[in-house]
Amino acid sequence: MDSTKIIEILAYTIPSLITGGVAYYLFNSYFKDQQNTRRWLLQKKAQKEALPLRLQAYERMVLFMERINPTKLLIRISPISNDKNDYENLIIAQIEQEFEHNLTQQIYMSDECWTIIVTAKNSTIQMIRKANMSDCVDNADTLREVLLSDLMEKQSPSNAALAYIKNEVSQMW
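^ thats the sequence. predicted structure below, dont judge the formating
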């Protein structure tokens, strides 16, 4: 083969390769863009359908926080007997039952929000246990009084969690 034939073949081949490469790049970019658009549309549709579920989960957790607020809890649950330990166990059992009823809501909220909710629940239980260990508590009614007087001095854990939940929901808009 002489050099003119090689140059002639290269003159036809190089533009074809360049055109093929550009076409491949453009088609590949177009298909990726279409795939991203479809994914975005599906995500938008799923988000639109999930928003009511997420809001319902936050509503349920707000209700949970309100129900375990010691002020409201102590008013709602009156002592069955005069034994302070029985009353403590009854209150804690109510909190745990409420919590277990709402466990599935965690899939609709952020991990940070769920952690704050669990911390508020545990802090409320700890507050009740600490008040029951106090030397001045000798019966269920005294336990109620000590808990309510403690809440006059400081904010309940559920109020702090409520503020966080409200803030997170407001960021969804």
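DSSP finds six helices and no strands in the chain.
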